[in-house]
Predict the structure.
Amino acid sequence: DIVMTQSPDSLAVSLGERATINCRSSQSVLFRSTNKNYLAWYQHKPGQPPKVLFYWASTRESGVPDRFIGSGSGTDFTLTITSLQAEDVAVYYCQQYWSPPLTFGGGTKVEIK
Amino acid sequence: QLLLQESGPRLVKPSETLSLTCTVSGDSVSRGYYWVWLRQPPRKGLEWIASISHSGDTYYSPSLKSRVAILLDASKNQFSLILTSVTAADTAVFYCARGRYCSGGGCYFDNWGQGTLVTVSS
């Protein structure tokens, strides 16, 4: 199984400041022939279902604000919120879809400082 | 607009079978997507349970494989989850979702149901 490890577990950021979340996979999720990383990011707010933010590690889902940036390749990935807004308070998860079993990181809780 | 809605009992007794159905509207389960069940136990992270392709290929979490089945009913545009021999550890919010860009069973999930809390308790 591919183990996904996120850091930190939680972070508190001032409004308008940058938030950075890291995700590491136990093996590469990069398919070299297509140069695609089988990695997605989700935002999960209380009482709502998770919402996909990025797939292929850096392809932004329609409607996701451009203050969210997905980056990385191979085994190391980052989700950056360049200017934190109040509505961004949530738990963020990375997920690999390289192969079953499909696995998620443990989540990173983002709060306002 | 794609909508997914979970339905089923909210309370299941230990050792019994949990059955949930996801009704899909705005798309056909017979089209080229995968249909997926996931769960989130209280105060824990997300866990993938099972996926089924539009053509009936199934994939299961190894940790649940001996107790779980996922079924597709194209005539009702639904898919279902069966989880047998439940214990308190199976208490969770269960989500159904659509899988995208699926290859060899690997998908990300672009549309989710609202989720339903199922409690296992006597």
Remarks:
- Chain A has a mean pLDDT of 97.
- The radius of gyration of chain A is 13 Å.
- The CA atoms of residues 40 and 55 of chain A lie 4 Å apart.
- Chain A touches chain B at residues 1, 38, 40, 42, 44, 48-52, 55-56, 61, 93, 95-107 (CB under 8 Å).
